[in-house]
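Milestone 3.1: sequence recovery, worked example.
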C-alpha cells in the first residue's frame, strides 16, 4: 500500500518541479536574452560597449541558470526541520554573477539607458534572495529596492536630461517585481514539496498503525494460550509420577490448546479473524485519505442492518480490502467512492475511482485477487464484477441478504432513503 500511495504524488511533484525549472531559470534567460541581447545588437550602441556587454551577458546567463538549478536541487532534499535552510550559494558562481551584473549595469547606465541597466542587478538580487532565510531575504530585497533609486537618479541629475523621477523609480520597481516573480514559483515549489513529505509520512504512519493492530491481535491470541500451556506443562511434569492418569489428561489438554492457538494464528494471518466489511471500510477511509485521495463513503442503514452472515461480511470485507489495494497500486486516483446498499434483497458493495491505468483486470498474487474473490462470491450465491465506466474503474460485489427492519418513529423518514457518510 505504501508504494502505491506514494507513486501518484511523486509523479505530480516531478511534473511541478519540471515546470518550476522552466519557469524560473527559463524566465531569467529569456529576460537577459531579449532585453540585454537586443541592446547589444542595436546599431546605435557604440562598438566599445558591445564586446564587454556580450561577454558579461554569457557569464550572467550561465551563472544565474547554475545558481537557480542548484537552488531547486537543494529544495528537493528533505530538511531536518521546517525552518531549516539549505545554505548559501557557491561562492565562485556568485562572484561571477555579481561581476557580470556590474558590467551589464555600468555600460547601459553610462549611456543613460535607465530602463536596461537595473535588469541584471535585479536578477542577481533575486537569485541571491532564494538562498537566504525569510528575514534576511526581506532585508536584502528592501535594501536593494532603496539603493536602486540612487544610480539612475544621480546620473540623470548630473546629465540634466530631465528624467530624474523615471531614472530613480523605475529601477526600484523593477527590482521589486523581479524578486516577486522569481521567489513566487520557488515558494510554491517548496510548499508543495513539504506537503508531499507530510503526505508520505501520514501514509507510512497509517501502514505502521495497521501493523501494530495486527501485532496486538497476535499477542492477544498467543499470549494467553502460551501462558496456559506453560502452566499446564509444569503441572503435567509434576504429576507424571504421583498421578500418571491426570498427567496424561493434562497433556491432552495442552495438545488441544496448542492446536487451537495454531488455528487462531492462521486465522489472523489469513485475515479471517478480523476481516469484516465494517472494519475494512474504516481502514480504507483512513488509508485512502493518508494517500491524498478524496474518499467518499455512502452507507445505507438498511444494508448495514441487513441479515448478512459472518461469512458474507468477511467476503465483502476482502473485496473492500482488495479494491482499496488496487486503487493505491494501479491508479493515479484523486477521488474514490464507496457505496453499500440493499438492492432487491442483495447487499451491494460498489467501489469506484478515477485516475485509471491499463489494469482492467487486476488480480492479486496472494489468492485474494478479484478473480479468486469472484469465484468465492459465486459459490456463496453472489456476484463480483469489475471494469471501466468512462474514466472510472468500478468494482461491484453482491451477496444475498435478509433485510432487517429498523425501529423508527412515525415521523422518521425511511432509513433506506437516507445515506450515511
Amino acid at each position: 500500500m505504501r508504494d502505491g500511495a506514494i507513486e501518484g504524488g511523486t509523479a505530480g511533484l516531478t511534473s511541478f518541479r519540471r515546470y518550476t525549472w522552466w519557469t524560473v531559470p527559463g524566465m531569467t534567460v529569456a529576460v537577459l536574452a531579449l532585453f540585454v541581447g537586443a541592446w547589444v545588437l542595436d546599431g546605435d550602441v557604440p562598438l566599445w560597449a558591445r564586446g564587454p556587454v556580450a561577454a558579461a551577458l554569457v557569464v550572467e546567463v550561465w551563472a544565474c541558470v547554475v545558481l537557480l538549478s542548484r537552488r531547486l536541487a537543494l529544495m528537493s532534499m528533505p530538511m531536518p526541520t521546517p525552518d531549516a535552510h539549505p545554505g548559501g550559494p557557491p561562492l565562485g558562481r556568485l562572484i561571477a554573477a555579481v561581476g557580470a551584473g556590474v558590467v551589464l549595469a555600468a555600460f547601459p547606465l553610462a549611456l543613460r539607458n535607465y530602463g536596461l541597466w537595473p535588469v541584471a542587478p535585479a536578477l542577481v538580487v533575486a537569485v541571491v534572495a532564494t538562498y537566504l532565510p525569510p528575514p534576511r531575504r526581506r532585508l536584502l530585497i528592501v535594501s536593494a529596492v532603496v539603493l536602486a533609486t540612487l544610480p539612475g537618479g544621480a546620473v540623470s541629475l548630473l546629465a540634466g536630461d530631465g528624467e530624474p523621477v523615471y531614472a530613480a523609480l523605475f529601477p526600484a520597481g523593477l527590482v521589486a517585481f523581479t524578486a516577486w516573480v522569481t521567489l513566487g514559483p520557488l515558494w510554491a515549489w517548496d510548499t508543495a514539496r513539504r506537503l508531499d513529505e507530510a503526505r508520505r509520512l501520514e501514509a507510512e504512519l497509517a501502514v505502521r498503525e495497521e501493523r501494530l493492530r495486527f501485532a496486538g491481535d497476535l499477542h492477544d491470541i498467543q499470549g494467553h494460550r502460551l501462558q496456559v500451556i506453560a502452566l499446564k506443562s509444569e503441572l503435567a511434569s509434576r504429576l507424571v509420577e504421583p498421578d500418571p492418569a491426570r498427567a496424561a489428561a493434562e497433556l491432552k489438554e495442552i495438545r488441544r490448546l496448542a492446536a487451537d492457538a495454531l488455528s487462531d494464528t492462521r486465522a489472523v494471518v489469513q485475515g479471517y479473524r478480523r476481516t469484516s466489511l465494517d472494519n475494512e471500510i474504516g481502514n480504507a477511509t483512513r488509508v485512502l485519505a493518508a494517500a491524498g485521495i478524496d474518499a467518499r463513503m455512502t452507507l445505507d442503514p438498511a444494508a448495514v442492518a441487513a441479515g448478512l452472515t459472518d461469512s458474507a461480511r468477511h467476503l465483502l470485507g476482502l473485496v473492500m480490502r482488495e479494491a482499496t489495494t488496487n486503487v493505491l497500486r494501479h491508479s493515479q486516483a484523486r477521488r474514490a467512492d464507496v457505496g453499500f446498499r440493499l438492492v432487491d434483497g442483495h447487499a451491494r458493495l460498489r467501489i469506484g475511482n478515477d485516475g485509471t491505468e491499463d489494469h482492467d483486470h487486476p488480480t492479486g498474487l496472494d489468492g485474494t485477487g478479484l478473480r479468486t474473490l469472484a469465484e468465492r462470491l459465486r459459490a456463496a450465491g453472489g456476484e463480483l464484477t469489475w471494469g471501466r465506466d468512462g474514466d472510472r474503474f468500478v468494482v461491484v460485489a453482491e451477496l444475498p441478504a435478509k433485510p432487517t427492519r429498523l425501529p423508527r418513529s412515525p415521523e422518521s423518514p425511511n432509513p433506506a432513503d437516507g445515506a450515511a457518510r
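The first strand starts at residue 294 and ends at 299. The domain at 205-270 is CATH 1.20.5.1930 (Single alpha-helices involved in coiled-coils or other helix-helix interfaces).
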